[in-house]
Sequence to fold (124 residues):
Amino acid sequence: MDPKKFETRIKARLNELQDRLERVETTLDEPADADLDDQAIELEDDEVLEALGRASLQEVRLLNDALGRIADGTFGTCRTCGEMISEARLDAVPYTLVCRICAGAKATHATGSAHPTGKAQAGP
Ligand SMILES: [Zn+2]
Fold:
């Protein structure tokens, strides 16, 4: 695993997000259209843009944290179990803090997406 490779990718991603955030801000600053119907649509768009902006800001924070971990040498180590995170996983999510196994264990409890009813694991 070569942290330098991820450092390059993370910095490229940060540039991308910075561009996106600037576009979101520019769009949000545009005055609303005079037509009422269009205003309603613009309000919806603004909400989408704000959500997008928030998600991007969150990712910027995570990516900066990852750069910090590259600098102090802890990048790629699972925060939960201390094992090395697989390179394939880091390729997919360079700012991840936990390995696939720990993330999977957490996701099952946190989102329940694999068992939408929440009762699937309760047994017969
Ligand atoms: Zn782990």
Observations:
- The CA atoms of residues 66 and 110 lie 23 Å apart.
- Residues 36-72 form the longest helix (37 residues).
- The chain has two domains: 1-75, 78-116.
